[in-house]
Amino acid sequence: MVNTVDANDEVLPTFYASQWKFAKNQKDFVKKFHSEGRRQYEIRKNVLRVSQRLENVCNEKNPASAGKFFDSNYKLKPKDATVLRNNIKTVEEIQLCAKKVRQGIAKEDALLFSKTTHKLKTGNECAHKFHEKCFGTLAENDAKVLEIKEKLEELLKKHKQLYKFTSRANLKTSSRQAKEGRTKARTRKI
C-alpha cells in the first residue's frame, strides 16, 4: 500500500509542543486539541480514501480492476476494452478526488500563515506538519495514478490495434441495421 499519513498517536505531542504555551488554561487546550484531532481525522480519512481507491484499481484478484493487465504474461482479450475504459474513468475520478482533497488542505494551510508576512502563525506548527505529510502522500498517489493511467491508455491503444474488427459497429450488416431501425420506429409509435 502507498505510504499513508501517520496515525493519530502523533497529534498530541506535536500539538502540545505548539499550543500549550498559548492556551488560556487546560480546558482551552483540551478543546483546541479535540477540534484539531477531529479536523486531522477528517482530512486523513479523505487522503486514505484516495489511497484505497487507488489500491482497488490495482487489485489483481478483482476481474474488473486493472491489476491483471500489469502482469507481463497477460494477453489481451477482445472483452478487455470495456474493463480498460472503465478503469481509465476510475483513475480519472481518483485524480479529481485527489485534486479536491489537495485544494481543501491548501485552503486550510493558507489560513495558518500571516497575510502580511507570509510566515507561519505561532502555535500552528502541528497543523502545518500534518498538511505537509498529507501533501507528500497525495504526491506519491499522483505519481502512481499517472503511471497507471499511461499504462492503461497504452494497453487500450494496443487493444484497438489487435482487435480492430471486433467492435459491434463493425460487425453489423446494413440489413441488420435496417431491421433494428424498423423495430425502434415501431416501439416509438406505441
Span of the ends, CA to CA: 55 Å
- What's the helix-strand series? HHHHHH
Question: Which percent band covers the strand fraction?
Answer: under 5%
- Poorly predicted spans: 1-6
Main beta sheet = none
Number of helical stretches of at least 4 residues: 6
How many E strands?
0
Dominant shape: elongated
* Overall mean pLDDT: 83
Radius of gyration: 25 Å
Number of structural units classed as domains: 1
- SS-derived structural category: mainly alpha
Query: What proportion of the residues is helical, as a percent range?
Result: 55-70%
How are the SSEs ordered, and which strands pair?
Layout: H1 11-19, H2 26-57, H3 80-110, H4 125-162, H5 168-171, H6 174-189
Helix pairs in contact: 1-2, 2-3, 2-4, 3-4
Descriptive key words:
190 residues
Report what the structure shows.
The chain has helices at residues 11-19, 26-57, 80-110, 125-162, 168-171, 174-189. The protein has one domain. The chain is elongated, with a radius of gyration of 25 Å. Helix 2 packs antiparallel against helix 3, helix 2 (26-57) runs parallel beside helix 4 (125-162) and helix 3 packs antiparallel against helix 4. It has 190 residues and is mostly helical. Residues 1-6 have low confidence and may be disordered. The termini are far apart.
